[in-house]
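Recall the central idea of this unit: under ordinary conditions, the amino acid sequence of a chain determines the structure it adopts. In this exercise we apply that idea directly, starting from the sequence alone.
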Amino acid sequence: MQKHHTRASVLNMQMDPDMKFRVSEAYKTARTNLSFSLVKSECKKIVFTSPLSGEGKSTTSVNMAITLAQQVNTKVLLIDCDLRKPKVNRFFNLQSSPGLTNYLGGMKNMESIIRQTDDPNLSLITSGVIVPNPSELLSSDGMKRLVREMESKYDYIIFDTPPVNVVTDALALAGLTDGYVIVVKEGSTLKPELLRAVTSLEHAKVKILGIILNGSKIEEKEDYKYRYERYE
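Accordingly, the structure predicted from this sequence is:
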């Protein structure tokens, strides 16, 4: 496993202390809800997606992984499965390669693509080189082997995937994971697009764990900037 110094997430950025507290507490609330949603799973494998691009999906995935890893004795693996437009590596000041596609394409072994962050509880697999067949790689036997191997070593595996209304890549992980979280943005995500995303996931027969709303306006009586809603 490679070790890297990192500088990740909005949780570690310089910001107004009150704002930072609100954002941090919101992620902790989402963490609690996710934990209870999958209480029976020894390794909780959660996919983050969104209806369209620009809704804060990758930012949310990174910050949720960091928040989960802040728990005592909780090992978290964050995998960038957005093989078309990867972003997770940028939060950690890393190159995207070597990463997931390098392993799935047979160019690297499994251990060589796992990178250790500054947080001893948080590990990372970046996307790797850009490939022409991302959906096929995500549904491949190699991906299944990777997940089986990693679930014995981690308490959580977080998958950052492309927007489900744009490409079908996120659905390729349906049989490998415990549930999906949909990330939307206030003032940006339209209701028809959200309903379309929900319908796509329901057709794939996956468990929708909830919806995270990014960018909600903070009013005096509001506690959090980010909201988590359980999907029923």
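The first helix runs from residue 17 to 37.
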